[in-house]
Design brief:
about 700 residues; alpha/beta; Growth Hormone, Chain: A; Rossmann fold; 7-stranded mixed beta sheet; 4-stranded antiparallel beta sheet; about 10% strand; disordered C terminus
Amino acid sequence: MKKNERATLLVIIATGISSVAVQLITIREFLAQFHGNEFVISLILFSWLILGGIGTLVAHLITPHYWQPSPSRLCCLSFILTALSAIQIFIIRELRDFFFIHGSSVGFYPTLAYIFFTIAPYCLLVGFVLPYSLFVLRTETPDYSGARIYIADNIGDITGGAFFLFALVFLVTPFEAIFLAGLPLVAASFFLFSLTEKQRKYLKIIPGAAITLLVLATGIFFEPFSLAPSEGELVHYRESRYGRIAVHKDNGQFTLFIDGVPVLSSQNQSIAEETIHYPMAQLNNPQRILLISGEGGIMKELKKYGLKTVDYVELDPDIISVQFKFGLIENIEGLNVINQDGRAFLADSDKIYDAIVLNLPEPDTFQVNRFFTDQFFSLVKKRLAPDGVLSFSMEGYDNYLAEPQRQKLSSLYNTVKNHFKHVLLMPGLKIFFLCQDISIKTDIPARLKEKGINTLYIRGYYYGNLTKERISGLNDLMDPNTPKNSDNSPFLMRLMFSQWFAKFSSSPVGFIAALIVLTFIYLFRIKREEFVLFSTGAMTMGSEILVIFAFQIFYGYIYFQIGIIITVFLAGLLPGALLGDKLREGGKHILVLTDGLLVFMMVILMLALKMGGDRLPSFFFLIFGFMVSLACGFQFPVALHLGGGGNSAVTRSFSADLIGAACGTLITSLVLLPYFGLIWATAGLIVLKLASLIVIGTRNEKYKQKGFSLL
């Protein structure tokens, strides 16, 4: 291997390391900015892929005629790309409150536009650099293999994912991670320039490298300022494995924020009393209580009952330490803190409780929704004493219950009623569900008086706010025909998704229709082997989205696992591409075989989900992801060989793969999953791959000779 070739391949590998780390950091950043909404992941991946595909096409159009490839230009592009990675994160943080009202929810289209345009410069350049690197190599070796570039890029992608997963996510802040991930690209670009340019020009690269490193270092310096709140002061900040933790202090009050959402406050007396005393008033002599997540002041209220055991389950140990540090919860007698996922704890535990209290936000993400499904309530019932009570809450209303909210409450009512004989909704600023197999008492102040429990809010305001008429009126509004909420068919997520659009008087129909039209126009212009790559890219990314959402549903900690999932889906590409490059002479038959294998794996996934996805070990999804990416990587060099292997074939193949992946991401996340659930979403991806199998399997060799397009 020539020195210049080795140096260029090092730049490609370093670009992969940097770009994957930046992608993962960007995803986590947007999750923190948009309140942990998983649909944001799909919008990021869609934008990233479609912009990368456009950048690849731009490289094909510009390079031969207007911008001849050279190592020095590749080095300059690499420096710009590295600097953009830090600038991008800073822009995402700073412009969010400039374009949107601080703390407000944001509609689908503004969210998509914000994501698309803030990451556009970086993603377009990433898409441009990969084929441009090949063009640089082909200035010396005209028949240089495009598959080798694909393999080198995969090596970098896998290394970047592993670097982020096993080091960066634990040890450093986002801007420090950007700096460390960018260093290999700066070094590789500097090395390439030193080999290919004369001494006089070589000295000119030093200022470029210095400016790039200065931009990265500046990001580290300004990171604390970029996180400062518009009101109050930031007194604590940490990037944990599971989310961004921040504590704001305003007028002596501490508020804990997780991914930008206020979850705990040091002064919330009314909610603390309702959360604890509504369920505890139903019990005669409670001794063992389970809390899943917390609320400010609840320990103080629980202390009034002299409980023997209070198990407090919180997934993130960093959240627990912050709560104790700032006095958000009190360390009472009998308190056991358990750092585990609440649902996993219930599945593994054999303890029996008198009350189980959920202190969770609205189920507007798959991560939270998993605590409001039929499967979860079944777990709860097994861990409750015969007269035990389950309590959880939803957002309340003033005078009128809107239809979407009524449907949400009705779905929850019907789901939990399947497991408890009595379910009562208590209206207020929050609507509390009380679920028990014995009759539920509504005169909470009288029950507390009998027990000698003193309160402030309930004693003074309960009778004025919760009349018998208001309680019965709310419960009479529940619709028995509303579908139940389950893991595989999350009806609440469908409602939340629809509410997201209805809240801003918009609809996803126009966007999806435009995407379908543009996709069909594109399909009319591509060859059959490119359609195979398009469908494989769509199915691979669709499968990745399925696995991401399945992790949210069954395990609930995607903020950390997103790195594992993306890395695993990248890891199979490399061995697949190496093997495919060796067997590329098999042509059409290889593509037919791998298409059949992909269909078979999707059928296995669908059957596994049908039989019980919540019982599947996490490594099942990771092995599935590796196998899918293995087949995808296998197909690329084969399809590239069938396309002729020239510059045009390379850029068209890269674009087909990226554009297909973008379409698969969006269709799976916006249509298949919210409206049809996991199993039918899997079936939809199977249909897409069957279409590819039919197209390539029935191919006539005379079409190959004439170069006819797909349709």
